[in-house]
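Troubleshooting log. The previous run stalled partway through. Resubmitting the same two chains, unchanged.
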Amino acid sequence: MTYGYSGNLDPRKTPLPISGTLTNNVTNFPVQRISNLNNPSLRWEKSRQINFALQFATAGRIFSGTIEYYLKKGTDLYGETPYDYTAWGLQSTITRNVADMEGRGIDVSLSSKNIDRAFKWNTDLIYNYNSSKTTRYFTDDSKDFFGAVFNGNTIIPVVGRPLYALTAYKSAGLNNEGDPLGYLDGVLSTDYRAITNSITEKGLESGGVVFVGPANPTHFGSMINSFRWKGIALSVNILYKMGYYFRTPSFSSSTLINGGYGHADYYERWQQPGNELQTRVPKMVYPDYPQFSFRENFYRYSKVNTARADNIRLHYINLSFDFNSLTKNFKRTSSLQLYANASNLGLIWRANQFKADPDYSNTFAPQAQYTIGLRGNF
Amino acid sequence: MQALLDDAGQVMNQRGTPSFGETSAGDYFILPDRYGSMNEMLQHAYNWEPYDYLYPNDWSICYIPIYNANYCIEMLEKISHSSNPAAWDNVKGSAHFFRAYYFLMLSWVYAKAYDESTADQDLGIVLRLTSDFNVPSKRSSVRESYNQVIADAYQSISYLPDYPLHPFRPSRMAAYGLLARTYISMRNYDSAFKYADQYLQLKNDLINLNGDEDLGPSSSTYKFKQFNKETAFYTEMNANGTISLLLASRSRIDTSLFAAYEPGDLRRTYFRMQNGYPIYSGSYSAGSRQFTGIATDEIYLIRAESNCRKGHLEEALADLNSLLSHRYETDLFQPVRASSKEALLNRILLERRKELLMRGIRWSDVKRLNKEGRNIILNRSINGQIISLEPNSSYYALPIPLDVIQLTGIEQN
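Second attempt completed without errors. Output:
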């Protein structure tokens, strides 16, 4: 059993403002521009953790492993929080000590020798469970702040909810004119600006926003199966992540028209009454009309564009052949090995219906890599 | 620290002053077929209907230079003056000047017109005098707001050089101009005269529209060169908030105001006509951005008006005619004569409106002149309906952003 206590200070967060150096292009005078505000009352983030660990093995180590359980308490955590920008109008939010958290987790690692003869088959399984929630939020101003829906990269200011969670506009699909429907004071509405404002004003109580779930995996780990027969070795690693949610990008009229970026959902967009029964993608509008910026934002961050992110992916396959196994004449100090491996082989299974890779929803997933090589030690 | 105050492009000068006042005033109108395509915020601002709007906005933008000023003032307390007296003085004077300048801009937009009899009760702006954001914001009274502007401007005078290295930088001349501006918006015409006069002793040259090195090339859409000889201190309206009401794609200059530029008045060439309606292109920004800084023409008009109100008609006439002789075609210029104090004052106020078009000044003028009993009623015509804003309406203190109200608990206008 161990007990740890640590502090964490983000070097970008200081009691003095941080600025960058530039030159004014009219006067050529040197310019300092502040990028981070000074916060004289900033404290360190602190965390304490207690671990219980257990190691075990059966006779002959056919089955062995460790199990670890931990409890974690964090205090004075940094978080983005809206603040009175009368103090400095360059940002409407600021990072400061905002919350306390509580977390618990289990780390399990198991090894088993399934077959242990001339042909060997081993399995290593790693399983992690991790959950955390906000236990206290410091400022009343921001505890129900939902002016922006949360993407899971800031601490959720609601006590009892996961520290990092995804929220979204509550949505009822499309109406028969192809416009997305939200909720305003409990009633279906297309007044997206009013919905946004009521969320800013009343937070969760507005009924216009919902928790989708944790933004980070709660259950995750890997499984490695290794096979060996004479000089041939094969190992396969599978990663799994479960119990979390993501937001998928979709078609946006303004990014298409102003930015020239399309999205495949364009082909699924609402085009005539009745389509609303089959699709979630709204009709295309001309974003010249600025009120549509609220509509586009609403759709982009609405519940219909979120899904379970659970997935299993094939991380790598390694295959090797060891020439030492062919002859006993090789000196033991040298070796020669032919190997091939393939990595980033993509998803085997995903829970979401968007056919999206949840871990790379806005970017391209890393490409599969294949290597073949000869390795020698002499 | 000088470098913080030299960030003219993004923070101190060009990002810049509020548009909410100018867009709420009556020197322009929205083309009827464009009204429907504007977002709700713009429609409400145009109709003088209170509206819940959020970050970013005039409020947030004006408080950025105020932060830089506060930070410099605090840091100077830890730096000995003798280490570099000239640099220390310039930072000190500039910081107080910028703070005064933006507090005044905010007061014109978010507070009622200064009224000696109610200035203690009327709500002013938030006077932030520290860089520590943990200090809560609260609203001061109108008197406290203007007193702070005056105190900071006075402070700056004793530290600044007469003339700046560049019009982005404050100077003693600009501080006199700022005080003249402040006092005339408070209807304190004695002090307005005093500081306008001090300014004009340092700088009094005007651009002659009959021919001048500071005029842009005749091929240019825009009339003037930037940083011309009349520009004592340079700022522009910021590009956020309601400024898109003033876009040439949607708005035109009020036609009756345009008609007030007589034949022979070369300021008619500030305008280009499109489908019979005038578009303004006479800004000292030499572009489509609205110049809102302190310039010599404004100070002539302040001294003329103050003198006129004090009964010094000859002096008032001299200033008015100095200005107009640089604005009218030389052959057609007839010096103005005063038949009465009232007639001269009317003419000066008309010239003020014509000369200082789209400089972020008119809103404050309408407020102040209605306090003088001029009974200026602003009208909008929307889908055939006329909407009016009555003199001294409470809406003349424009609404503060909703998120600021919620986060601070300060009182909404």
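Takeaways: Chain B touches chain A through 46 residues (CB under 8 Å). The two ends of chain B are 35 Å apart (CA to CA).
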